[in-house]
C-alpha cells in the first residue's frame, strides 16, 4: 500500500525525468483514486507549444479521460510543487478532494518560476491589471447565459 509520501516522491521523480526529456519545465504531477494512479504527467509546455500544459493540468486532463468524467471528486493530486494560480483554478473546477505538494512557491521562485506577479494581479480591478481586461458592454451580452438558464437538458459543472 503506497503512502502519500510514496506518491509525492513519484511526482518528484517525474519532474526530474522531465528535465532530461526536454518536454517542459521541472514539474510532475499524478492523480490517485482509491489507491490507484489514474494519471501522471510532467510539464509539457515547450514540447506541446502549449502554455497551459502544466503538469497538474495535464494530469487533470488525463484523469478525466481515464474516468470518462469532467469532475474528479474522490481523487487526490500529488505534485512536485505548489500549484500555480492557473492550476489552482483547474483543481477547483475539477473538484479534486485534496492536493499534496512538495516544493513551495518560494522554492519555484528561487529556481526562476516566480508566480508572484500573477498572485499580485488577482485582487486588482480588471482594467488595472498589467494585461488590461476591458469590460465592453454589448446590447446582447447576457444572451448566452439566458439561453443556458432556459436550457432544460444542460449539463451542470
Ligand atoms: N506547479 C507548477 N508550477 C509551474 N510553473 C510553471 N510550470 C508549472 C507546472 O507545471 N506546475
UniProtKB/TrEMBL annotation:
Answer yes or no on keyword Thylakoid. no
Gene3D superfamilies named among the record's database cross-references? Cytidine Deaminase, domain 2
- Please list the coiled coil stretches: none
Q: Quick one: signal sequence residues?
A: none
Instruction: Say which domain of life the source belongs to.
Output: Bacteria
Enzyme Commission number, as recorded: 3.5.4.3
Q: Where is the CMP/dCMP-type deaminase domain?
A: 2-132
Name the GO terms of the biological process aspect: purine nucleoside catabolic process
The record ties this protein, via Pfam families, to:
dCMP_cyt_deam_1
Sorted alphabetically, which keywords does the UniProt record give? Hydrolase, Metal-binding, Zinc
GO molecular function, one example?
guanine deaminase activity
UniProt similarity note: Belongs to the cytidine and deoxycytidylate deaminase family.
Can you say what this protein is called?
Answer: Guanine deaminase
Species classification? Bacteria, Pseudomonadati, Pseudomonadota, Gammaproteobacteria, Methylococcales
Q: Which gene encodes it?
A: guaD
Amino acid at each position: 500500500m503506497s503512502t502519500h509520501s510514496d506518491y509525492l516522491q513519484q511526482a518528484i521523480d517525474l519532474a526530474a525525468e522531465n528535465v532530461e526529456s526536454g518536454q517542459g519545465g521541472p514539474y510532475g504531477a499524478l492523480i490517485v483514486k482509491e489507491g490507484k494512479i489514474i494519471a501522471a504527467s510532467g510539464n509539457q509546455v515547450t514540447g506541446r507549444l502549449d502554455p497551459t500544459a502544466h503538469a497538474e493540468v495535464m494530469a487533470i486532463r488525463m484523469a478525466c479521460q481515464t474516468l470518462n468524467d469532467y469532475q474528479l471528486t474522490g481523487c487526490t493530486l500529488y505534485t512536485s510543487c505548489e500549484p500555480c494560480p492557473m492550476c489552482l483554478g483547474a483543481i477547483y473546477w475539477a473538484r479534486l478532494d485534496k492536493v499534496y505538494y512538495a516544493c513551495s512557491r518560494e522554492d519555484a521562485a528561487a529556481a526562476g518560476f516566480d508566480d508572484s506577479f500573477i498572485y499580485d494581479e488577482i485582487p486588482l480591478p480588471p482594467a488595472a491589471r498589467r494585461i488590461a481586461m476591458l469590460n465592453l458592454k454589448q446590447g446582447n451580452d447576457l444572451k448566452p447565459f439566458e439561453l443556458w438558464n432556459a436550457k432544460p437538458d444542460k449539463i451542470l459543472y
